[in-house]
Amino acid sequence: MIVGTVVGRLWATRKDVKLNGLTFLVVKPHSYGQDRQEKYFVAADNTGAGIGDTVLVTKGSSARTSISNQQAPIDAVIVGIVDSLDICKETPNE
Amino acid sequence: MIVGTVVGRLWATRKDVKLNGLTFLVVKPHSYGQDRQEKYFVAADNTGAGIGDTVLVTKGSSARTSISNQQAPIDAVIVGIVDSLDICKETPNE
Amino acid sequence: MIVGTVVGRLWATRKDVKLNGLTFLVVKPHSYGQDRQEKYFVAADNTGAGIGDTVLVTKGSSARTSISNQQAPIDAVIVGIVDSLDICKETPNE
Amino acid sequence: MIVGTVVGRLWATRKDVKLNGLTFLVVKPHSYGQDRQEKYFVAADNTGAGIGDTVLVTKGSSARTSISNQQAPIDAVIVGIVDSLDICKETPNE
Amino acid sequence: MIVGTVVGRLWATRKDVKLNGLTFLVVKPHSYGQDRQEKYFVAADNTGAGIGDTVLVTKGSSARTSISNQQAPIDAVIVGIVDSLDICKETPNE
Asked: Would you state the torsion angle of the CA atoms of residues B50, B51, B56, B59, taken in this order, to the nearest 10 degrees?
C-alpha cells in the first residue's frame, strides 16, 4: 500500500454509472525524505478523508474489494486515515 | 486512477475479436506541474471522449469491469470525462 | 494498452507446458517522441505479428483473456496490429 | 517478489473494517548495490516481522491469498522473513 | 513477460506455509543494451533454473497459474529457460 496526502478532488458528471456515489480524491504519495517526485494519482475514498489528511491507499484490482459495488472500475482506493507513521532512521543501506 | 488528456486515436483492423466495437484513444497523463514526462498509453473508451478532453482512466484488470464484454483483453479504460480538478497548492512537503 | 514495435523473438524449449504453442515476441514500446527509453518486454502473440510490425499490447492479468488457454501464465499479449496512430501535436502542457 | 527491510510501522484507527487485526509495516526495498533509490511502501504482515528484519514481499492482488480474509483490500504482504540471500557478483552485463 | 538472468537464491524458513516447496531465485532483468539499471526481483521457479541461466519470467497475478498451489502468494514466476533471443538491431526510432 502507499501512504500519501490528499491534495485535491475531482468531479466528473459523465462517467461509468458504476462509479456513481463515489468520491474521487487526488493523492500525492509520501516521499519519505527521498529525493524524488512521486506521481499524483486519483483514488476513490472509502473513509471520509479530506484535503490535508494522510491516507493509506490500496492499488490494483484489490481496490475493488473495499467498496460496496465490487464491479466498479477503480484501481485505487483510500482504505485508512493514518494516525501515525513511525520510521526508523538508522536503517543501514545495503 | 489517472487523469490525462486525450491526444490521439488508434486504428487496428487485425485484432482480437473481443475488441471489436471498442474505440482506442491515446492518453497523455497529467503532470500536475511536476517536472517529469509521463508515458502515453492507449485506453479503450467508455464515455464518448474526444481529442482534447480531460479524462479519468482506470488501469489493470479493473478496466474490464467497465465494458460490456468483461472478457475483452484490455488493461486501461476511460471511465469518466473530468469536469473539474481542484488541487490544493499549499501542501507542505514531507 | 501499450503501442510498440516487434523487434525480436524468443525461443524456450523448457517451459511451462501451458505455454506450448504460443509465440513469444520482443516488443520495444513507442516513445511518442519523448526523450526516454522504454523497457523492452516479451509478449505472447495472438495476431500473427512479425518483426517490424507496430502492435497493440495488453499487459497484466487481462492478457490471459486473449488466448485460448486462459490458465497460461502470461502477463503480456499482442492483441492487435496497428493500422494507424494519429497523435495531435498541439496539446498544451498542463 | 521484492526483498526489503522493515523500517517502520503505520497506525490507522479509521480504516476499512476488513483491515482490522492486520499489522502494517513500512518496507524499504533492497537496492542490491545499485545506484538507485527504491520507493518505500506499506505491507500487511503475515510473519511477525519487526523493525530491521529482511523480508520477502508479494505485491498485487496475489497479496490477498496470504491472509485469512481474502477480501481484505491489500496490495502488498510480507510472506517470509529472509534467512539468507546469496547473490552471484560475477554475472556479466548483457 | 521479462527476460532476465538468475543471479542468486533466497532462503526463508519462516514463511507463509503455501510457499513451502517452492524455490526462490533472484533475477536481474536484461537491459537489451539500453543504458538503464533494472531492478532485481525474486521469482518462484517452475523450471529447474540455476545461477547464470537466462529465463522468461511472468509477473503479477498470472504468476499463480504456473504453480500447483494456485493460492500461493507469489507475484513472479520463472516460466521458461531461454534457448535464444534474436533482436533486430535496425529498428528505427519513432
From this structure: 100
Cβ of residue B40 closer than 8 Å to a chain A Cβ: no
Flag whether E90 is in a domain.
no
In whole angstroms, what is the distance from residue D20 CA to residue D27 CA?
A: 20
Q: What is the pLDDT of residues B82-92, one digit of tens each?
A: 999 999 976 55
Which residue range is the domain that position A34 belongs to?
2-81
Burial (Cβ within 10 Å: 0-12, 13-18, ≥19) of residue B58: buried
Which among A8, A12, A37 is the nearest to B80, CB-wise? A12
> CB of C90 within 8 A of CB of C58?
no
CA gap A32, B43 in Å, rounded: 32
Determine contact: E38 vs chain C, CB below 8 A. Answer: yes
Q: What angle do CA D30, D35, D38 make, to 5 degrees?
A: 40
**CB neighbourhood size of E70 (10 A):** 14
Over residues D49-68, the pLDDT tens digits come to: 999 999 999 999 999 999 99
Place of cell 485460448: C68
In Å, how far is A81's CA from the nearest CA of chain B? 16
User: For the whole model, what pTM was predicted?
Assistant: 0.94
CATH of the domain at B49: 2.40.50.220
Instruction: Name chain C's partners: 3 or more CB pairs within 8 A.
Output: B, E
Neighbors of chain E by Cβ distance (3+ pairs < 8 Å): C, D
Q: For chain D, how many structural domains are there in total?
A: 1
Question: Is D28 in the E-facing interface, judged by CB distances under 8 Å?
Answer: no
Q: Does D91 fall in a domain?
A: no
Size of interface A-B (CB pairs under 8 A): 106
Predicted-assembly ipTM surpassing the 0.90 threshold: yes
Q: Given an 8 Å threshold on Cβ–Cβ distance, is A74 in contact with B62? A: yes
One digit per residue, the tens of pLDDT, for chain A of length 94 reads: 999 999 999 999 999 999 999 999 999 999 888 777 789 999 999 899 999 999 999 999 999 999 999 999 999 999 999 999 999 976 555 5
Q: Is residue A39 a part of any domain in this protein?
A: yes
Residue C94 lies in a domain: no
* B71/C contact by beta carbon, under 8 A: yes
Nearest to C85 among B8, B18, B60 (CB): B8
3-state secondary structure of E24: strand
